[in-house]
Amino acid sequence: MALSTFGAIMGFAAEMVRETETFYKTMLRKVEDPVLREVFRVLAEEEAKNCALMERTRRENVTEMILEPVAGLHQGDYEIAAAEMDQAGDADLLNRALILEERAHRFFSTVSDKIPLPEVGRIFRKAAQRKEKSLIKLKTLGSAYSDAAGLDGFVKSP
Amino acid sequence: MAFPQEPMSGIKKIKNYINGEWVDSETREFGDVWCPATGEKIAEVPFSTAADVDQAVQAAKEAFWDWRCTPPLTRARYLFKLKDLFENAFEDIARTLVTEEGKTIDESRGEVRRMIETVEHATGVTTMMTGYNLEDIAQGIDCTAERQPIGVFGVIAPFNFPAMVPWWFLPYAVVCGNTYIVKPSEQVPLTQTRIFEIIDECGFPEGVINMVHGAREAVNGMLYHPDIKGMSFVGQSATAKYVYKACGETGKRVQALGGAKNFVLIMPDAELDRHMPSMITSFYGCAGERCLSGSVLVAVGDVYEALKEKFVRAARALNVGNGLEEGIQMGPVVSKKHQEKVLGYIEQGIKEGAKLILDGRNIKVDGYPKGFFIGPTVFDEVLPDMTLAKEEIFGPVVALMRVGSLDEGLKLIENSEYGNAACLYTTNGKTAREFKYRAGASMMGINLGIAAPMSFFPFGGAKGSFFGDIKGHGREIIQFFTDTKVVIQRWT
Q1: Nearest-CA distance from A80 to chain B in Å?
Q2: How far is A51 from chain B (nearest CA, A)?
């Protein structure tokens, strides 16, 4: 589905952020490593803020006189396969978090360039920067896991 | 915040809101309210009587003095609270609006946002309502000019912006200390009904803000009521003229905003690719049902072929459907009757010899076989004396014309009986200045297709598009809702 309107973009952004927030909140109970648990807790809080930001942006930045069609954005490019997390260990959860964060980073970066509303573009650019930091945090943790397990390339970029 | 998918279900019977209570009209006549996307009846609206109107006027009149004596800042605080309540109900109002009017959810959100903006602007009453003074206008004599509220005001609103238009006037009237009556369009009464639920929650003193639904009898009941001091109207030009005359007869203040036929000129140096989305929005936004919509697309000079090709391609690509679905770019028109009217204009265009190059008549929208849809339509080879070039169609129908120069384009605007809006696309500043300087319309867009003034600027047209003196919102509206009392004093 093409994300060709402001509402469609904001709706998808809100849905994506909510999905990520739910993931962190739900998985907090499953994580065994206290360091990873703390990272998830922080990221869950960040996502809750992001969620509020997306909904506020949708409400306050809709300018009726310049509701122009947006081209070149497709929901399919940002959809990720559902994953069964019931039996997942810490490493799987970390990998899943990386996939979610990378998707969000890619989405926010792309939209910030394409959306014709400068204020919304700025908000998305900031969101992309925050996602970049989250990715670094998770990747650093992933490297530590890999080193500890003697594995090479534990963290797979999605 | 939750985003409800279906704001209403079942047939709703609508009530008036008078003196802080929901009351039944005494009428036995009701009109049907339709969902334009599904073609189903969703509510019944009372065609209120003159007696219903009188009841509202008496409540507003009774409430006036206490409200008028309430300090402006206190009155503004009601609006601050109202703004918060509107924000909380934002999505709910927007969805209700789509359900009865048909526009897309984005357009609806944009409309609700603009409604809230007028509330925000009106909270500045303590600055906007101040008067002025001068000492010693003669030896030892001082003079002050003070702004005072006047009494009961009212608005008769159109169908195309059910949330926003009454609020071009209401917040300013009320914050200045007047009391108010809203008569929403009988085609789209649910949005204001939802808004009045919020007004009720806000806790305004009884009688300060009232709502009477209805049609002709309610309209005349307001226009000819001796205790209503001023009226605002937005709708078709013929009715605007009628309202203007009636208010003249009864000594009311009046601002009557009428219809439009807006010309959008494209210069040869315009950046077509960059601005095509905005051109498309101008003509097809809100399915062409707005007084600021582009109606005649005028190619100046040799831009004609490129413009035609790009515009038709972009118009054809528009995603038409139920406005409640995210991603839909154009919804249905408001009613079966209006759909037939617009289709009639298309037939007329063919009969008069214009060339139909994009035909939206038989559009099929999956899942909505009974919806009042018309697809994007483009006529080529339209001449100035054709109906398509002269009359307000209020639908997604574009008349493409070609002229040799800016002067010729300006002549088209000058010859139109309307003077609401006009737009120009160019990369040349001198051309842009020439256009805005000479064009006979009151709302001008340069490199944008919808020249919609925000709440802090006045909204209204010229010629047959506006009857009155003071336009909607903007700082001037305070003059409409207040009398200037001059006090000359000598104490020496």
Answers
A1: 20
A2: 10
Cβ-in-10-Å burial (0-12, 13-18, 19+) of B385 comes to: exposed
Q: Who among A1, A5, A60 is closest to B106 (CB)?
A: A5
- For the CA atoms of chain A, what is the radius of gyration? 17
Chain B contact for A69, CB < 8 A? yes
* Mutation for B interface: A68, A74, A117, most B CBs within 10 A: A68
Q: Which residues of B touch A66 (CB under 8 A)?
A: 278, 281, 448, 450
Q: Provide the ipTM.
A: 0.75
pLDDT (average), residues B349-355: 98
CATH of A6-149, one of 3.40.50.300, 3.40.50.12780, 1.10.390.10, 1.20.1260.10: 1.20.1260.10
Domain boundaries, given as residue ranges, for chain A: 6-149
CB B153 within 8 A of CB B146: no
CA–CA separation, B72 vs B178, rounded Å? Answer: 11
> In terms of CA atoms, which chain A residue is nearest residue B104?
A7
Q: What is the pLDDT of residues B229-266, one digit of tens each?
A: 999 999 999 999 999 999 999 999 999 999 999 999 99
CA B158, B213, B218, B149 torsion-angle sign: negative
Q: Is the dihedral of CA B285, B289, B292, B297 positive or negative?
A: positive
Q: Give all domains of chain B, ordered by start, each with its CATH number.
A: 12-258+465-490 (3.40.605.10), 262-446 (3.40.309.10)
Instruction: Return the bridge partners of B488, or none.
Output: B143
Residues of B in contact with A6 (CB under 8 A): 106
Nearest of B64, B24, B80 to residue B203 by alpha carbon: B80
Instruction: Count how many residues are written for chain A.
Output: 158
Do residues B216 and B183 touch, judged by C-beta distance below 8 A?
Answer: no
